[in-house]
Amino acid sequence: MKILDWYIIRKFIGSYVFGLGIFIAIAVVFDLTEKIDGMLQRQAPLSEIVFDYYFNFIPFFANLFSGLFTFLTVIFFTSKLAAKSEFVAMLGSGIEFRRLLVPYLVAAGIIGLSNWVLASWVLPPANKERIAFENKYIRGTFYYSKRNIHFQTQPGVLAYLETYSTPDSAGFRFSMEDLRGGALSSKLMCDRIVWDSAKQRWRMEGCTLRELPSDSVERLTNLGTIDSALGFTPEEFGRPLAEDAALLNNRQLQEHIDRERLKGSGGIEAFVLEKHNRLAVPFSAFILAIMGVSLSSRKVRGGIGLQLGIGVGLCFIYILMFRFSLTFATKGSLPPFVAAWTPNIVFGILTAYLYRVAPK
Fold first, then answer.
1. For residue 190, which of 210, 174, 168, 203 has the smallest C-alpha distance?
2. What does the alpha-carbon distance between residue 160 and residue 147 come to, in Å, rounded to a whole number?
3. Same domain as 155, residue 70
4. What is the dihedral angle through the alpha carbons of 258, 263, 268, 274, rounded to the nearest 10 degrees?
5. Are residues 12 and 101 in the same domain?
6. Is residue 287 part of a domain?
7. Domains in the chain: how many in total?
């Protein structure tokens, strides 16, 4: 690493932190203006507003808009270098253009690694506190409204609930069928199940066990009230938010995906997409850094306004493409892996073209 490398890295990281910090301050003001009425109406304590919500709101937004500010930062300070003929001097001294990209890639790597650590391990517990605050003081009480709920708790064991009451953590008309031998061997039927938070088990009331052994006569046993774990918890009937995937760290996210696939549940696309995005979004820092340098290293008349305008336009196209991919993956038939990496692939091709035509 040379003095010039450290100079570019300091410029990159410093401009990134400064620009992102200003944006987050503005975002906090707008968010507070929008939500203050609900907070006051539900009497949210000031300590919870500051520490449970905004203390976790800031890293969430910093990670969300990191790619945008990576690109704008590169364009901003590289355009200034080009406007002062510093980039021309660097190339004229014999430094190759691809060698000048090294400090940019190092800084992009620092930002991308930070984003990956944040999204994978730091933000999930922070998001839990932030969303819990929103559910309590902004969104209000959630009621599970689906009826006739079918799911699989383990291979060959099928469960059914007619309805579920969120405030009571209770399910009605519950049944569980054992098909692990390839045929129905037993069926447990209960009038009501209620979650016991102290025992971390379900209390099942009015239960009847129907057994169908292959070598004997069918038996019907009245069990009354019994306790059992059953293989699922009330959290699985919670508020169906897209942010649910962001509440899980990498290990928990993979375990959830495997568990839901085992149950045969639908709607896991958002979780699979989150898994791929946690790698694709940090990787985009390298693509956006190279694109920014290639786009803004040419000295142009009229200052840096045109280059910044082009940069902002490309950022919005990237965000729009990302949102379209997200929608098609969660609501359509686009595979989550393709949805996560399509913006990077498209912008990677554009970056390769801009790199080729950049002044060297």
1. 174
2. 10
3. no
4. -20
5. yes
6. yes
7. 2
Q: Could you report the per-residue pLDDT of 26-66, keeping only the tens digit for each?
A: 999 999 999 998 888 888 999 999 999 999 999 988 998 89
Cβ within 8 Å of residue 97, ≥6 positions away: 91, 297, 358, 359, 360
Looking at the structure, do residues 43 and 127 belong to the same domain, yes or no?
yes
342-353: pLDDT as tens digits: 999 999 999 999
Q: Are 11 and 110 in a shared domain? A: yes
Provide, rounded to the nearest whole percent, the portion of the chain with pLDDT above 70. 95
| Residue found by looking up tokens 């699922």 in the block | 232
Return all residues near 128 (Cβ < 8 A) that are at least 6 apart: 247
Q: Is the pLDDT of residue 334 over 70?
A: yes
CA distance 290 to 356: 11
Whether 215 has a pLDDT exceeding 80, the answer reads: no
Query: Radius of gyration over alpha carbons of the chain, in Å?
Result: 27
Residue 256 lies in a domain: no
61 assigned to some structural domain:
yes
Rounded Cα distance between 245 and 29, Å, is 27
Residues 6 or more apart in contact with residue 281 via CB below 8 angstroms: 66, 67, 115, 119
Check whether residue 50 and residue 197 sit in a common domain: no
Do 15 and 104 belong together in one domain?
yes
Residue 82 CB contacts under 8 Å (≥ 6 apart), including other chains: 88, 296, 297, 298, 299, 300
**Residue 254 lies inside a defined structural domain of this protein:** no
Whether the CB-CB separation of 107 and 211 falls below 8 Å is answered with: no
Which residue do the tokens 């985009």 mark? 284
Q: Say what the pLDDT of residue 279 is.
A: 93
Q: Are residues 9 and 109 in the same domain?
A: yes
The residue range of the domain holding 226 is 149-237
Residue 278 has what pLDDT? 93
Q: In this predicted model, what pLDDT tens digit does every residue of 240-255 receive, in sequence order? A: 555 578 888 899 888 8
- If we measure between CA atoms, which residue out of 139, 160, 130, 137 comes closest to residue 239? 139
Is 0.70 surpassed by the pTM of this model?
A: yes
Long-range contacts of 321-328 (CB under 8 A, 24+ apart): 321/346, 326/273
Same domain (yes/no): 176, 273: no
